[in-house]
Amino acid sequence: MGANGSSPPLAPGVAARATAALIALRIAYAYNWFDIGPALRPIGVTFDVGPTQWGILVAAFLVSAGVFQVPAGFLARRYGSRSISLAGAGLLATGAAACGAAPTFAVLVALRLIAGVGAALFFSPAIGLVGSLYPPGHRGVPVGVFSSAFSVGSALGIVITALVLPTLGWQLSLVLGGVILGVPTVVSLVAVPASVGKAPVHDGAPRPTVPAALRYRGVWAVGIAFIGLEGATSSTAQFIVPWAETVHGWSTALAGVVGMMFVLPSFAGGPLGGPVAERHRNHRTQFLVATLVGVGVLALLPWVGLALAVVVGVVFAVCYGFVYAVMYVVPHYWREVPPGEIPLAIGLLNAVQLAGGAAVSAVFGAVVGATSYAVGWEVLVGMTVIFLVALVALPPTPTPSDGPPAAAAPARP
To answer: Which of 58, 80, 176, 212 is the most buried (most CB within 10 A)?
Structure first.
């Protein structure tokens, strides 16, 4: 380990196996974000709650997943990204499985809060961990694929839960999610070398009181700009099944398949967005175009039938998959952020997005409960566009002619 927190180069086979294990872990992690969506109506029947309370349940997970992102970054900075990310996956698996035993709705909300803490501890350290497996200039594809693996897990969480609910009930369906996550967590403990993802070795120079990652305005700009998109992706994925059942009268299985199309295609956005972000530095333009196209088609959702709903889902998912892949590559090129603080930078922008997105999800649920799904979708689109104004504060990304990115440069004291 160098003073900047970088690890010795890994053999290609070792890096590939570690990446594959972490991608599988990312898929199972995402499963446990979205298996709650198809269960909302049965949960409502069990505890006699409706869309407004469903929004609170969805928001609870996002709040804790957001609030603990920055502490996760600090912990990764202190103890290493490998140990913190895998501990977070274990906590999420435990909390998610425990939700199946919740005796009251209040306890269920509390358990989803605990599961969200595990999600926070896993995510940003895991992004830094994947990036540390590869040298600068070779991170775009693995980071992009890792980012997009979330869509696979989201889709599986929605469609598998919708299929097994009639047989297992919502309680055992949630337990199943925890078990699914526990397996790749154990595999990753073996497959990811202990030599990577260690805490940066401090060179003895005094550190700033406030880490650079928390002071850099690009982190805040990206975090605030995509509060609306975070709320839109979460609300859409969680509410698409009850919307399809309630508004269109589709079966739970068909609604689950439609819901899958709002998340699974985002996998294509990652392998596209990661390399584009690495080769072209007009990141503000990339963010704007992809987001506006995505929410532009989402605005059509209240007015379409089955076939066009699938088209809307595919376009929306690919667009936000592209956005998130760009988002997680860009911090590696911010010179103001030392390599050891990249998980902290990603943690902060995620904290802002998730905490704000939780509020957006709660607003969406309240609007649906008070008016209709049609009004809720349009309010969601409007909130997504409004927050994009924060991109004005995003500094231009340095070009290759400006020298090596921060991830390849010595750490600053």
So the answer is: 58
Q: Of 302 and 207, which is predicted with more confidence?
A: 302
- Closest residue by Cα to residue 275 from 213, 328, 226: 328
pLDDT score for 403: 47
Which residues make Cβ contacts (< 8 Å) with residue 234, sequence separation at least 6?
A: 33, 58, 62, 357, 360, 361
Neighbours of 57 (CB within 10 A): 24
Pick the CATH number of 12-196+215-398 from 3.40.50.1360, 3.90.226.10, 3.40.50.2000, 1.20.1250.20: 1.20.1250.20
Question: For the whole model, what pTM was predicted?
Answer: 0.73
Give the C-alpha separation, 171 to 316, whole Å.
Answer: 31
Domain boundaries, the chain: 12-196+215-398
pLDDT for 190-230, tens place per residue?
888 877 767 666 555 555 577 888 889 999 999 999 999 99
The distance between the two most distant Cα atoms of the chain, rounded to a whole number of Å, is 65
